[in-house]
Write a structure and sequence with these properties.
By secondary structure, the chain is mainly alpha-helical. It has 12 helices and 2 strands. Among the domains are: about 80 residues, Serine Threonine Protein Phosphatase 5, Tetratricopeptide repeat; about 90 residues, Alpha Horseshoe (Serine Threonine Protein Phosphatase 5, Tetratricopeptide repeat), CATH 1.25.40.20. The protein has a two-stranded antiparallel sheet. It starts with 7 loop residues before the first strand and ends in a 7-residue tail after the last helix. Keywords: ANK repeat, Repeat.
């Protein structure tokens, strides 16, 4: 049979789901643009469409498999946590058994008598367990003591609290934790120094700001009449001195021997830092609250 004169044969390739390829000769009108080429609907020899039901079913099965895998993966962390808890519990049990075998009968008796912490037996006037834990940064064990009724503001032989110690040790996380737990930030030790005095002394800027935010008195004086601003002049810390001044520190306060903060700044002699501190103090009006 002779082909129609205006029709040409063209080989067309069709791709179906599942990477199956089919080739068919299609009739193309050469006078039409290639973009408007009409392709006949392709059917497999068995009469099914190119996207076979088999392929669709396979895809659905694959999707279900994927979802199942995903669900298993999301359950994995919980399973892991359970295993970890079991492992930790087993380790603790093994440790207890091992240590009890190592202890003498007398030592085991001491352990039995102290199922709860006996703080009187592990404390002295100098060595306070809460203070030691604060300096060591052991927040969890601090909380254990507090949960057993330990006074958060208990003092040592120098009249210092755990907050004093944490400030001296520059333990910012412990300081924040103690304040959240209700530690009093304005308490003075036997020398009259507050945590703010010590924060200025060790140049702990963030602690200074935190204590001021806790409404401490920036003009409180120790037994010698030194305010935190006096300490800032001695430590030559301009930034902290400025923070104190901005928050109401009185630059006219005098120590017991009559020295103002400016006097202390000038006692360092003719050098840049002394001039820098003097300028700061001279330019800030007395009792000025920014």
């Amino acid at each position: 049979m002779t082909s129609h004169p205006i029709l040409q044969e063209k080989t067309c390739k069709f791709s179906a789901l599942g990477s199956k390829s089919h080739t068919k000769v299609c009739a193309v009108d050469p006078y039409q643009s290639s973009s408007t080429t009409h392709l006949q609907n392709w059917e497999d020899p068995d009469g099914s469409d190119s996207e076979s039901e088999e392929d669709v079913e396979d895809g659905e099965e694959n999707n279900l498999d994927f979802e199942s895998d995903w669900e298993e993966e999301t359950d994995a962390p919980e399973t892991s946590n359970n295993v970890e808890k079991l492992s930790t519990s087993q380790i603790e049990e093994d440790l207890i058994k091992e240590v009890e075998q190592l202890l003498t009968p007398e030592e085991r008796a001491i352990l039995q008598q102290n199922e709860a912490p006996d703080l009187d037996k592990i404390s002295t006037a100098k060595w306070n367990p809460l203070h030691t834990l604060a300096l060591a940064g052991q927040i969890k064990f601090m909380d254990n003591l507090l949960a057993n009724g330990y006074d958060i503001d208990t003092v040592d032989k120098d009249g210092q609290t755990a907050l004093h110690k944490a400030v001296l040790g520059k333990k910012e996380a412990v300081i924040s934790h103690l304040l959240r737990k209700g530690a009093k930030p304005h308490l003075q030790d036997l020398d009259g120094a507050t945590p703010l005095h010590y924060a200025v002394q060790v140049s702990a800027m963030q602690t200074v700001k935190l204590l001021i935010k806790s409404k401490v008195d920036v003009n409180i004086a120790d037994n010698e009449g030194w305010t935190p601003l006096h300490v800032a002049m001695q430590s030559r810390n301009r930034d902290i001195a400025k923070v104190l001044l901005v928050n109401g520190a009185d630059k006219t306060r005098r120590t017991k021997d009559g020295k103002t903060p400016l006097d202390l700044a000038l006692c360092y002699g003719k050098e840049f830092k002394a001039y820098d501190l003097a300028k700061l103090l001279k330019l800030v009006p007395a009792n000025n609250y920014f």
